[in-house]
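ParB/RepB/Spo0J family partition protein structure dump, as promised
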Amino acid sequence: MAFKNSPFRFQMVDVSLLDPDPAHVRQSINEEALKGLTNAVRKLGIIQPIVVRPAADDRYSVIAGERRRQAAIQAGETQVPVIVRDCSDEDALEVRVFENIGLGVRSALEPRDMATAIQAIAQRFASPEEAAQYFGRAPTWLAQATAAANLSEKVTALLDAGKISSTGAAVQLEKLARKNEAKAESLIEQIEQLPDGEKMSKKDMDEVLAVAPASSEPTEAAPSPVAPAPAVNQPEPAAAAMDTPPREAPPDAPQPTPTPRTKVNPGKVKLVAELLGLSEEDEETILARLIDEFLSLRGG
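structure tokens r here:
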């Protein structure tokens, strides 16, 4: 009988009666990543029942939910919810593959929806530090995770109108507004005038940020009675203080070779983005989240 037509029943089962399937496609589980799931299970219990099939001696073999089984054990759970279904080895393999490649089985929340939900939970706590601790993350993660929930009305309107390519690009525009409000307002006006169907991409936003000054506040330069000399003849601070002659670069000095940027596999970027619930275009946000995850796991 096909899996979709097989009878099933829901029940609570002693977690000690659940056995991993030696033929499971997931042969390795990242112990550090499992800590996050364990933290969730400890606070909320098993949200999604583990799918199992009957085995010998009144025991059960896990079809889908091996990570949940291990997290429940580490969290000290004794009873876990399961759905029991008779299933062939062939069907069990297909269930595991389809569940994990995400073909409609499970889909990450849109970044703004996720950010809004996390912020709603965080507001229950007295401080960002307490909220981050509840999630088992660092406070820096909380700020990053809720950034998309605090977009301005103008940026939100552009994102809803499809004139900004992703939530990540919208967050970048908000960052620009904090650094240089005038530059951000000018860019928003340019985006508003884009023809229908055209949008500002994350790449274009990065290019704007790369040339934007760090602050819109003017800085007062120290007066100088003498026009500055070319850069290669500029004295170093220590030399200038002692009125020593400027040092010139040797004519045949080798120029430093720029370090080539390592090319990241796009498939891996997409996978990490899906796991974090982010847009795959937003590589900067993905990197920031990964750094926060690493620091939280290391106790940073």
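Confidence is low (pLDDT under 50) at residues 215-246.
lmk if u need the other ones
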